[in-house]
Amino acid sequence: xxxxxxxxxxxxxxxxxxxxxxxxxxxxxxxxxxxxxxxxxxxxxxxxxxxxxxxxxxxxxxxxxxxxxxxxxxxxxxxxxxxxxxxxxxxxxxxxxxxxxxxxxxxxxxxxxxxxxxxxxxxxxxxxxxxxxxxxxxxxxxxxxxxxxxxxxxxxxxxxxxxxxxxxxxxxxxxxxxxxxxxxxxxxxxxxxxxxxxxxxxxxxxxxxxxxxxxxxxxxxxxxxxxxxxxxxxxxxxxxxxxxxxxxxxxxxxxxxxxxxxxxxxxxxxxxxxxxxxxxxxxxxxxxxxxxxxxxxxxxxxxxxxxxxxxxxxxxxxxxxxxxxxxxxxxxxxxxxxxxxxxxxxx
Amino acid sequence: xxxxxxxxxxxxxxxxxxxxxxxxxxxxxxxxxxxxxxxxxxxxxxxxxxxxxxxxxxxxxxxxxxxxxxxxxxxxxxxxxxxxxxxxxxxxxxxxxxxxxxxxxxxxxxxxxxxxxxxxxxxxxxxxxxxxxxxxxxxxxxxxxxxxxxxxxxxxxxxxxxxxxxxxxxxxxxxxxxxxxxxxxxxxxxxxxxxxxxxxxxxxxxxxxxxxxxxxxxxxxxxxxxxxxxxxxxxxxxxxxxxxxxxxxxxxxxxxxxxxxxxxxxxxxxxxxxxxxxxxxxxxxxxxxxxxxxxxxxxxxxxxxxxxxxxxxxxxxxxxxxxxxxxxxxxxxxxxxxxxxxxxxxxxxxxxxxxxxxxxxxxxxxxxxxxxxxxxxxxxxxxxxxxxxxxxxxxxxxxxxxxxxxxxxxxxxxxxxxxxxxxxxxxxxxxxxxxxxxxxxxxxxxxxxxxxxxxxxxxxxxxxxxxxxxxxxxxxxxx
Lengths: 347, 479
Prior knowledge:
Shape of chain A: globular
Number of strands of chain B: 0
Distance between the termini of chain A: 95 Å
Number of domains of chain B: 2
Largest sheet of chain B: none
Low-confidence stretches of chain A: none
Number of domains of chain A: 1
Strand content of chain B: under 5%
Structural class of chain B: mainly alpha
Distance between the termini of chain B: 15 Å
Structural class of chain A: alpha/beta
Oligomer: heterodimer
Low-confidence stretches of chain B: none
Largest sheet of chain A: 5 strands, parallel
Number of helices of chain B: 21
Strand content of chain A: 5-15%
C-alpha cells in the first residue's frame, strides 16, 4: 500500500518534471537544427548569416578554411577600429605579405595574446602584425566570456563543452530569443533587433575577413546628410571628454597585469621576428593616450613601432573621417597607413 | 564531480531511477554505490581514505561501547579520537610541514617537483572526520548506541549529497532515517526540487557572477585601488554565502529526493545582530559541532577560572574553527577575530542594551546588522588571502582612493552583470526574510496551477538564460 503510494508519487513527479522541461527541449531541438550562431557545425562561408555572429569564432574558422590555399602571414589585430584598415591596403606596404583581419569588438589584450598563441601553435608564419589599439583595449587584460566575445577552444583553451554551453545558453536569453523568433517568423528587421540580427547581408569579406560596412553605402547615398542625421552620435556636450579644442590626456591604464601581458605578446612576436606596427587610434573626442602608457609601449615594442594618432591633430579634425564617435572610416585608415610607411621608408 | 556538471546529473538520475525501481531493501546499497562512484570519480585515493576512516570509526564505535569500565572507556575513546584527529592533521599539515622541512635543510624544489611531491588533501575529509568524531562522542556520552549495520553506517558517513562540504550530520538525526526509511511523498519530492532550484540560483546567478571579479581583485591586491579593495571586501561575504548556502540547498534538496532530511546550515546570517548570533546562523552544522564538542566541554573544564576560563574556552574554540579551515596563521587569525569579538560582546552586553534604549530599536538593529556584517567581511580577508601579511596589507590599503575613475567601484563588472547579481541578492534576501515568517513553499503549493507553473517556468528561464554554468567549483570544496 505504502509502496504503491510512493510509486504514484514518483510517477506524478516525473511526469510533471517532463511537462516543465518539454518547452525547453523543443527550443533546444530548434537550436540544434538551426545552429543560429554557426558553432555546432563546420561551414565553408560565414558571410551571409541573419544573426550577428561571434567575430572571434568566425574569423578563426575562416582562417582554418583558407590557410591551405592562402599562406596568411600578416594579421590585423585589435578592436573594431580595425575596420578602417582593409587588408588589401595594408598589403601594398608589406611586400609579399598576405593579410587577414583577426579582431573583435572591444577586444582585450588577452584576446590578442591568445590569438597570436593560436597562430603560433597552428604553425602560421607571423611576419607582420598591425595592431589597432586605444586606451580601452590596452586596459583590458582578461578574456570576455559572453557569447559575442568568447573565443573558440583552439584559441582560448577552454573546453568544447563550455564553449558550446555558452552559445546554447545565449540562445535562451530573451534578449536574443525574442528578436530571433520574430525575425524567423516575419523576416522583417525591426529597430529593437539591433545588435542581434544582421539586416545587411554580407558584412565581411569571405577570405580576408575585412568588414563590408553598410555605412559606406549610406554615406554614398546620403552624402553630407549622413553626418547631419548621425549628429547625435558625435555630439555629447555633457561628456567631459567632448572635443573642445583643449589638450586632454587620459588617465594611465597600464599597470602590472597589462604590462606583463604586453611583454608576453612581445616575446611571442620576437620568436617569429615579426614586424609589428601599433597604431593608437585617432580618438574623435581628441583625448591623448597617457604619456606614461605611450612610453611603456615604446619601451616594450620599440619606439619606431608605435604610432600615436590620438589627441588634437589633422586626423581627428575632420568629422568626415568618422562613422560616429567610436569608429573611423577606411579613408582615414588608408591615409594613416600611407603616412606611417612613408615615414618608415624615409628613415 | 561538482553538483553542476553533466557527470553529476547523470549519476543523480541513475541513482534516482535505481533507488525507486529496485526493491526497497537494496536502496542503501544503491546510495552506497553512487557515493563510491561520486567520491572515487575525483581520485581513487579519496575513496580509499574515506572508506578507511569510515570503517575505522565503525569499529571504534563498537570498541568504545563495549568498554564498560570508565578507565577503559576513556582510553578507547581518546585513542579513537586521537587517531581520527591525527589522520586529519597529517593530511592538513603534511604539505606545509614538508615545505618547512625542505627549507630547513636548504632544499629548494622547482614548482613542478613541489607539486609532484605534495600530498593530495582528500576531498571532504574535514567534514566526515568531524562527523565521525561526533558519532564516537555521542557513543562515549552514551547518548547513542553504535550502529550495527555496516552498510547503513557507511551511507551515514559517505552519502554523496553531503560528502563534499557537509552539513556535518549528527548520528541521532541521520541514522534513524537510514534505519527506518519512510516512503517518499509527492510534496517531499517537490520540496526537494524547489530547494535545488533555490540553491542553483544562489550559486549560478549570485555567487558565480561575483566570483571572477572578486578573484581578479584578490589575485592582484597590490595593483588594485583602495576603492576596489573596499568593494571586494564588502562583496566577498555575499559571494561566499551564495556559493556555500547554494551548495547546501542543493545538498538538502537532493537528499530530500531520496527521502532523507539533512540538517540546515544557514539561517539568514546577514540578519545577525552580533557575531555570536552570526555563528548561530552561519555554517550551523560546524558551529554547533564546535559548540557542543569543543566549547561546552572546555568551558565546563575551565569554569573554575571564571572570566579567564570563558575567554580561554572561546579563544581555543575559535582557534580550532580557524585551524579546521586551513593550515596557516591567516586561518588562525580568522578564528581568533571571531573569538575576541564574541568575548567583547559578552563583556559589553549591558552597555549595548543602554545604547539600544538610547537609539531606539530600528536604528540599533540596523547599525548592529551593519557592524556584524563589516566585522565578518574584514575577518574573511584572513580566510580568503593566502597569508597574514597579505591580509594586513589589504586592510591597510582599503580606502576611497581610485586609480583612474569612480567606475572602479564596479570592480570591472559590466552593467548587465551588476544588475543581475544585485537583483539576485535582493530577491534572495527577500526570499529568506519571507521564509522566516512563512513557509513559502507551502504557500506556493496552495496557489492555483497557473501561478505555480508560471513561477516554475520563470525560474527555469532565469536559470537557463542568466545562470553561470561555466563555473563548476564550490569555495568550501577545499576543506
